[in-house]
Design a protein that fits this description.
Helix content is 35%, strand content 28%. By secondary structure, it is an alpha+beta fold. The chain has 2 domains: 103 residues, no CATH class; 220 residues, Vaccinia Virus protein VP39 (Rossmann fold), CATH 3.40.50. A hairpin with a 2-residue loop joins β4 and β5. The termini are far apart. It contains 11 helices and 15 strands.
Length: 389
């Protein structure tokens, strides 16, 4: 795509501008973040400028001419990232070494809830056919001209399902920034989709850290993030069960197919950090299956390996849900279509309420003692309670 000055991009968007955000300044003397939104004051269309300096926020109202002059004089080439949202498009820009800005991604505005949904092809998907979504092109879901590949239409619907579940949780949110930790990110196409959704579709200031055990995966994902111009997205090689992780507060924790107890450590990390949102699709629940023994009413389900495996998986996720509720979360268990077409299609979606309890863990402990198994998230939270006592 052609590279232009930021002031030219702003001028072109000004007529239908609904929001502009400039972030990641090159020097410390600049405002940490600038936000612009239109407003009508005594019948005149103006633009409210919000400057963020440390913990302080300052506002002033400018007409279009003053806004463009300020952009040319002080902002152009001084901020690494810019987001321009108009009535029809949301576009993200990154500063290049030549001082001009490249449009990395552009998408239609978020569809309004309740839109008509006739045929699948016309359904109001959040990630629309025709949008410049680099990850969907690299994944082979979109053609280079952003059309859905016919043979990958199922995957296109599945990815939109994932984004739809995220979008439902944020339907009434007015937050302007978010920090997300993604555990067991793997090839990370969904991590890139998350970044696109929050940065481009919602116009938020986004920081995402993807964790994975494999150094080559981390290196590859870092290259892709640089190619896309996603400067708020970084990847780190780490083991969630033992390594020191992000020191900053996490607003949201994502764990998609983190294997076995890695899911539990990620959920516990989210609890410790007080994450407002948790989205977890568990995988490979071996822990309970390896230890469970006959001991009561469920014995009839333990006589065959397949039934035992499925019971153990359901029991594991039921305990996780109850523990999360006790630790201050409202929990939904949602049927979720897996991207690799596996039977692992349950999502744990949780929102922090702060209302704690003990009943769920007590029930889980009774089951664990009766059937001779341990469950890592339960053990971690019980240990925390003992240490605090």
């Amino acid at each position: 795509m052609a590279e232009r000055s930021l002031s030219l991009e702003l001028e072109a968007a000004l007529g239908t501008l609904t929001k502009a955000v400039f972030s990641q300044p090159l020097d410390r003397t600049a405002d940490a973040k600038l936000s612009v939104r239109p407003l009508t004051l005594r019948g005149e269309r103006l633009f409210q400028l919000e400057r963020q300096r440390g913990a302080q926020v300052f506002h002033e109202n400018l007409d279009a001419g003053a806004l463009l002059r300020l952009c040319r004089a002080e902002w152009d080439g001084r901020y690494r990232q810019a987001l321009l949202v108009t009535e029809t498009e949301s576009a993200q820009y990154s500063l290049k070494t030549n001082g001009r800005y490249k449009k990395n991604a552009a998408g239609a505005a978020l569809p309004r809830p309740g839109g008509a949904e006739s045929h699948d092809r016309q359904k109001g998907y959040i990630l629309r056919e025709g949008e410049n979504i680099p990850a969907l092109v690299d994944l082979g879901v979109f053609t280079p001209d952003f059309r859905v590949v016919k043979a990958r239409y199922d995957k296109y619907r599945q990815i939109n399902r994932f984004v739809e579940l995220i979008d439902q949780a944020f339907a009434e949110s007015d937050r302007k920034a978010i920090t997300i930790l993604d555990f067991g990110c793997g090839k990370s196409y969904l991590t890139f989709i998350l970044y696109y959704y929050f940065a481009v579709k919602r116009g938020m200031d986004v920081t995402i850290i993807g964790y994975d055990l494999k150094a080559d995966v981390v290196a590859r994902c870092t290259q892709i993030a640089e190619k896309y111009g996603y400067t708020g997205l970084r990847f780190v090689r780490a083991d969630v069960s033992r390594d020191a992780l992000c020191g900053e507060r996490a607003d949201m924790v994502v764990t998609l197919h983190a294997c076995d107890t890695a899911t539990d450590y990620a959920l516990y990390y989210a609890i410790e950090k007080g994450a407002d949102y948790i989205f977890s699709v568990p995988c490979c629940q071996h822990e309970v299956n390896a230890a469970i023994r006959k001991g009561g009413d469920y014995d009839i389900l333990l006589g065959h390996g397949l039934l035992k495996e499925r019971l153990s998986a359901l029991l594991t996720d039921a305990i996780r849900g109850r523990v999360l509720e006790d630790m201050g979360y409202k929990v939904d268990m949602i049927e979720f279509t897996d991207f690799e077409h596996s039977p692992k299609n349950l999502m744990i979606r949780a929102r922090r309420t702060g209302k704690r309890g003990t009943k769920g863990r007590a029930e889980a402990r009774r089951l664990a003692e009766k059937y001779g198994f341990t469950q890592t998230l339960l053990e971690l939270c019980d240990k925390e309670g003992e240490e605090r006592a």
